[in-house]
Amino acid sequence: MASSEQERWAGSSDITSVFRVKELEEQQRTLLKSVICAFNQLLDLRDLNTGIHSTRLAEWAVRVARSLEIGEEDFYQLEVAALLHDIGKIGIPDAILKKEGKLTDEERALMNKHPEYSWSILRLFPGLDKASLYALHHHERYDGRGYPGGLKAEEIPMGSRIVSVIDAYDAMISHRCYHKGLPHEEAVCRLIAGSGIQFDPLVVQAFVKIAEREFADVFAATDSSPAAVI
To answer: Is residue 69, in this structure, part of any structural domain at all?
Structure first.
């Protein structure tokens, strides 16, 4: 084979290999997206409120991150963490997860394991290292009295601090089998009261601006009544 023909063949082979690698990478991304959607559907089937709740959080998380001028390279990780931060609850028995009364110490200890369960699931997927870390620490407190790591302030990943605030707000306003949703104004007051204690003050400030603009639509989605705040 002439040298020029060999070079053309080698060049063609290299181009084919590059396209094949890109094709495989796209297939991997598509598969990962499908798995994430499937997990969210699993949450929805386990608890009819949770899937909707997680979708709202994913949208809010990105908007809060954008308002705080966090790099867009972290948006996807944050979105996944907000969407699937509670996936570990599939490992919590329904008798505890849906209990109407106060949890015992033993039940609370088991419930508090769900962030670790979420982490153990998400970390298995290539490329979701940050998302799994954000999910692991979304119940840490700004004052260091949270779990599972007892991290405080800037020790807590920013993604976790964002999920913590929006998760708390959405949980407060949503109707659950164990409590009735709070009015928007009371939920916001509690976020502000917890600023610097349970929550990152900057995240609270950024999120409250979003919540104030959209609470009527959110209450409609959670089957709560915005009239309660008038």
So the answer is: yes
